[in-house]
Amino acid sequence: MPDKMPLRAMPNYNLFGLEDQSYESAKVVVLPVPYDSTVTYKAGTREGPQAIINASRNIELYSYEIGGDPSKVGIYTLQSMEPDMSSPENMVAGVKKEVGMILDDGKIPLVLGGEHTLTIGALQALKARNSDISIIHFDAHSDTRQELFGAKYMHATVISRAMELYPDILQLGVRSIDAEYASRLDRDRVMFIDDVKRLGTDELVSRILSSTKEKIYLTFDFDVLDPAEMPSVGTPEPNGMRFGDVLSIMKGIGSEKKLCGIDFVEFCPIPYLHAPDFLAAKLIYLTLGCFLSRGTPE
Ligand SMILES: [Mn+2]
Known about the structure:
Elements: E1 28-33, H1 48-56, E2 75-77, H2 88-104, E3 108-113, H3 118-127, E4 134-138, H4 158-165, E5 169-174, H5 179-182, E6 190-192, H6 193-210, E7 215-221, H7 243-254, E8 258-265, H8 275-292
Parallel strand pairs: 1-2, 1-3, 3-8, 4-5, 4-7, 5-6, 7-8
Helix pairs in contact: 1-8, 2-3, 3-4, 6-7, 7-8
The structure holds manganese (II) ion (MN).
Manganese (II) ion is lined by residues 139-141, 221, 223, 235, 266.
């Protein structure tokens, strides 16, 4: 760029606004998927990835909570996936293909949704490569309907599909559940919000650690948070978890478990309400820090 001209390059447009990104050296590869088509209440999670990326470019990269800069592990953001509106099955197949490519390159995929249905594609890709994994599922909803409105692939059935791949799923923060699943669930595998609050973080973390395998996949639906803190979701449920509690839990899990893949879904931005966008961005950033910044030099 000529010295005499007061021109400036556009700041980097990627998750966390990182400079000098390299796919080769990145540990985490972010796949934004601006897709929603099976929502049953408020549409708009297709706007989620962009709102989170916009906010994320303004967060401080140093984190006192982590004691370092989590971005140093290398976080590479891919171009957003093109939504395939022909059917949820085709969209899921697309996610499976791209996540599979990320896994084959030895990297940790981070799927940035978009609606929860996308998780199925990520898990299909993972299952084809590794079956010895536990799933940790943060969500206000159990998402365990076998079908809804005749559809097998949609946001309210995602955990039923996931259980067909990985029966070992631990659910946290649930407070909305269908009667059929409520009648047959394993109480050791479902931590209702009351359990989460009654046990407290330390006890909860020790139960999570003892009941999951060394390798985990984490699926995080933003509606697990309390709507007072996180109103920007498609299907809000009262009486949720708080940001600080989630962070403590992530620290606890991240200190012992190996992350194989992760998704953050169901973020549905509300125009002119910016705080939730920042919360989402920071939660993603710190979660990566909890799992990946162990021993990472400053
Ligand atoms: Mn949910």
